[in-house]
Specification:
By secondary structure, the chain is α/β, with parallel strands linked by helices. The chain has one domain: Rossmann fold, CATH 3.40.50.720. It contains 6 helices and 7 strands; from the N terminus they run βαβαβαβαβαβαβ. Strands 3-2-1-4-5-6-7 form a 7-stranded parallel beta sheet, with helices on both faces. The longest helix has 30 residues. The protein is globular, with a radius of gyration of 16 Å.
Length: 222
């Protein structure tokens, strides 16, 4: 186990998930990665290994309670209770206005955005609470505040995720755990102010904040 601690990234595909893993791994943290497809997450592990970052991957679908719990149990058995949980799982493309979206798609998105987050927190929080420290970082979006009509399900999912994290912050701060959403006010794209590398740097900044600066939401506006 590394003296620098460990991070588990849920939703560790290419893009922001990889960059979060890289940024924290550069600080000497051991990295655990969870994604729906093991082959894709293993590619990230291989990429990080070239940079000397200690990472390992397991498959886990955040929409399925048993799968995400098993994945987290596997990683915590190897790494111990993580110092950081970064919840970056995304529901993918989910177009549809309020009059078109229907309950099936809405519930599918909620299962990933809020259900998977709740299951992840349930699994890792006891270890953080016992230790009296930890950080839970959730990838948020401005559509939780100002909904994107053409992607209503995603907006509702992000809103649910935002409120869950707000409630978690109020609970967890009492036992030394910082839970916050990093709310991104823009579209992730390489070479822009919303480059995943820059956003990952913001995740690190939030993680290292002194307790007096902890808030339940951190806005990233590029």
């Amino acid at each position: 186990m590394s003296d620098a601690g460990s991070i588990i990234v849920v939703g560790a595909g290419p893009g922001l998930g990889t960059e979060i893993a890289r940024r924290f791994g550069r600080e000497g943290m051991q990295v655990g990665l969870i994604g729906r497809r093991l082959d894709r997450v293993q590619q990230v592990v291989d990429e990080l290994a070239v940079e000397g970052i200690d990472a390992r991957a397991v498959a886990g679908d955040t929409a399925h309670r048993d799968a995400i719990r098993e994945a987290l149990d596997t990683l915590t058995a190897e790494l111990g209770a993580p110092d950081v949980l970064a919840y970056n799982a995304a529901a993918g493309s989910a177009p549809g206005s309020p009059s078109e979206v229907g309950s099936a798609l809405l519930m599918q998105v909620l299962a990933v955005a809020a259900g998977g987050l709740a299951d992840s927190v349930e699994r890792i929080m006891p270890g953080m609470r016992e230790r009296g420290s930890g950080t839970v970082l959730v990838t948020g979006s401005a559509i939780a505040i100002d909904p994107w009509v053409e992607a209503t399900a995603l907006s509702v999912g992000k809103a649910a995720q935002r409120h869950f994290t707000h409630a978690l912050h109020r609970e967890a701060i009492d036992y030394g755990v910082h839970a916050t959403t990093v709310t991104i006010h823009g579209v992730l794209a390489v070479g822009t102010p919303f480059d995943p590398q820059l956003v990952a740097e913001e995740f690190w900044t939030v993680h290292t904040q002194p307790r007096a600066e902890w808030t339940w939401e951190h806005d990233y506006k590029g």
